[in-house]
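FAQ

Q: What does a record look like?
A: Structure on top, sequence underneath. For example:
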């Protein structure tokens, strides 16, 4: 036996596959969805998306979660958001899913309705995400659980029953189109202050009907959406939910409420919780602490409460930290964001078999 082989260490838990329904994800280091604001006015992915996501799939992540993709034109955050509300868009997404799958990663997509955090500028123009775009300037009417705006954005119209029903059907349609596009998993975005989170959080939801007030009422729309997506997406493929563990401010969602919501999601048939927090109000009112592993303890709590697989998002440190997290059973995978923007090949660093794990075209560099 050569010294190169004999010096190998056993593969760590981050390199082991995870099976959810009939989909086997080859490892536990996953790419978190991060909006690129680079779609054309038709909402279709561009060459930027192909290179951006293709590089991370080539870089060894087990699952590539394509950024928040709007379920309808008025559900976007900006005019440059990806969309998946028609068949032309679904066909264009096949470029992404085909390449991601060819590289051995699982293609997944996050589905979004933005609600009151909608019709704003892209981050690098004007006031960015704090800059409203009016209907006169090419924006669109926004909706929310009530007429309370987010920061300096437009005052939303209170969603009526027709708006609520349309949102449920839009998510179901997007789930069907996602399957048509070749995505093997879908994620419902119920965090970061977007529409489903707005209905969940008392900070944004001041309704007095069956969609407001008690936690049971505030969960009504998110659970309707979840059931619709689970029914629309193939039964043999997993559905995730990005869940808010806390709003980080008094009067907002607490981890106890998040635990109750997680239990309801498990009953619906969700397969994994993507654990995040914050976003219901502006950062200056409630800022998520900028520390490594900020969502790990919440992931552990929600895993115990629901019995579901969990994956915390946000700063998790390095691959050694991820391995420790998984080995301790505190989570089932890790969703990596900004670190993968800096290093598309993060998931391949320090692998015991790193030479064979890297693409053959790059092996001469090792």
């Amino acid at each position: 036996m050569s010294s190169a082989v004999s010096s190998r260490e056993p593969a760590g838990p981050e390199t082991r596959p995870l099976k959810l329904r009939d989909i086997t994800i080859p490892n536990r280091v996953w790419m978190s969805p991060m909006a690129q604001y680079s779609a054309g006015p038709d909402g279709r992915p561009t060459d930027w998306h192909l290179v951006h996501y293709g590089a991370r799939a080539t870089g060894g992540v087990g699952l590539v979660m394509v950024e928040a993709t709007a379920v309808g034109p008025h559900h976007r955050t900006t005019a440059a958001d990806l969309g998946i509300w028609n068949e032309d868009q679904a066909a264009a997404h096949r470029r992404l899913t085909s390449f991601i799958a060819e590289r051995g990663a699982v293609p997944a997509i996050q589905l979004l309705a933005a609600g009151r955090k909608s019709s704003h500028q892209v981050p690098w123009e004007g006031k960015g995400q704090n800059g409203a775009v009016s209907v006169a300037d090419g924006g669109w009417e926004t909706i929310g659980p009530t007429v309370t705006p987010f920061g300096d954005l437009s005052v939303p119209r209170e969603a009526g029953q027709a708006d609520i029903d349309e949102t449920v059907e839009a998510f179901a349609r997007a789930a069907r189109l996602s399957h048509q596009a070749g995505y093997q998993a879908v994620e419902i975005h119920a965090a970061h202050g977007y529409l489903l989170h707005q209905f969940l959080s008392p900070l944004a939801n001041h309704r007095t009907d069956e969609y407001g007030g008690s936690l049971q009422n505030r969960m009504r729309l998110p659970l309707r959406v979840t059931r619709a997506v689970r029914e629309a997406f193939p039964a043999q493929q997993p559905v995730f939910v990005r869940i808010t563990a806390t709003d980080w401010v008094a009067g907002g969602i607490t981890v106890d409420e998040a635990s109750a919501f997680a239990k309801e999601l498990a009953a619906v048939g969700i397969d994994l919780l993507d654990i995040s927090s914050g976003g219901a109000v502006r950062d200056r009112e409630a800022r998520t602490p900028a520390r490594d592993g900020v969502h790990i303890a919440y992931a552990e709590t929600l895993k115990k409460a629901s019995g579901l697989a969990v994956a915390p998002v946000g700063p998790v440190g390095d691959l050694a930290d991820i391995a420790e997290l998984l080995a301790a059973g505190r989570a089932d995978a890790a969703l990596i964001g900004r670190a993968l923007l800096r290093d598309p090949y993060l998931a391949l660093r320090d692998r015991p078999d790193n030479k064979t794990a890297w693409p053959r075209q790059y092996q001469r560099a090792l």
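Q: Is there anything notable about this one?
A: Residues 3-365 form a domain with the TIM Barrel fold (CATH 3.20.20.70).
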